[in-house]
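for the writeup, i need someone to sanity check this before i put it in the appendix. the sequnce is what the collaborator sent (i think, or maybe the updated version? ugh). structure was predicted straight from it, no edits. if anything looks off just tell me and ill rerun, i have time this weekend
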Amino acid sequence: MTPCFDWFEVVYYWMGLKMYDLVAGPRLLHLSRYYSAEESLELFPTLAKKGNDRSLRGTVVYYDGQMNDSRVNVALACTAALAGAAVVNHAEVVSFLKDEANERIIGARIRDNLSGKEFDAYAKVVVNAAGPFCDSVRKMAKNDAQPMICPSSGVHVVLPDYYSPEGMGLIVPKTKDGRVVFMLPWLGRTVAGTTDSNTDIAVLPEPHEDEIQFILDAISDYLSVKVRRTDVLSAWSGIRPLAIDPSAKNTESISRDHVVCEDYPGLVTITGGKWTTYRSMAEDAVDTAIKSGKLSPTNGCLTQNLRLIGGDGWEPSSFTVLAQQYVRMKTVGGKVVPGVMDTAAAKHLSHAYGTWAERVAAIAQDEGLGKRLAHGYPFLEAEVAYCARNEYCESAVDFIARRSRLAFLDTDAASRALPRIIKILANEHSWDKARQKRELENAKQFLETFKSSKNAHLNDGKH
């Protein structure tokens, strides 16, 4: 929903979004449309009737898709593994293997950061897709490699669900200082953002207090309710790897698009881009790798129609099967007793794991791992065991940030869930007490980078 405070804005945004509909073509979700001020307030009760001393004239609503990026990311790795890839996480390239005679990279020396062991991996072509870290990888091959990353910090904050109605978000294409702000329902909460400022590259970037405050101030201009700092359940900073093409004559051109280059024989780098174009990025990177390695593929690119693991046969109604056919076994007073596989848990499992959700539900039912990990959230203990067995989950941080989005939704809830998560992982991976203690310390340190309010507890009664 885009609020309009004069009739020119109504016409301008309506026409702009009709062009958006046109460009979407057959992939259009729904037609955009105009709503009067009265209709808008029915749909979005917390919307302000006045903004900068101007009255609301109406809103233009358009439709967009949404994703859970941690689940998409791990589904990609698992889909690659099913297709025959050897998938390794917690591994780091420490140096490249070179054929000095041909001056070509023929592989990499890799360190397993869990065991500390190192090994060599040989390849006809190495693809560097290290996001904001791709320049440091390029410099391993060529010391004087020109930087091609201009890192930009994007901060987001998560607020309780009552800030935005279910299924309706708010976007302001131009605030007072020319930035875009949005507020969207996301995984049962409200996510608001974003900022765009130059930053240094860090493994664990942290949001600055003034960036958090900017977002809260910007959205409060368009809401009729008070936006409080104490409502911030989680706040984080991500680094966008904006790309400068090293071969371009004008280095001023910083792109939101992706750039593929081979500035050392055998090392193809892809950077820039965004989630919405990741398959096109993959195709371009692999095409360049085929050319570099003089490879002879037997077929064309398949990424256009490739379904990720759990996608085949999934229907929006699939969660009803979980609710009807499974129970969640819980431990009550030392006894394992059956509980209901409620709608919230069934929907969550179905959306997070697709057709593989039944495997998670079976663990919850058969192994007494049906309890919730955190009050107010649908994540189940069974997910930790499932992710350890099937999704390369090797640490507590892996689960709270990279298999589920719990840390990003509610830092306090993630912190309270840690002891149980670590206990289940210890059981799956045979961790000793020292390792368990280390995991707790690492995870607490990780959560410190999420600048939530210490007193931001939320019990919405939904779960």
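The first strand starts at residue 2 and ends at 4. The CA atoms of residues 244 and 254 lie 5 Å apart.
thx in advance!!
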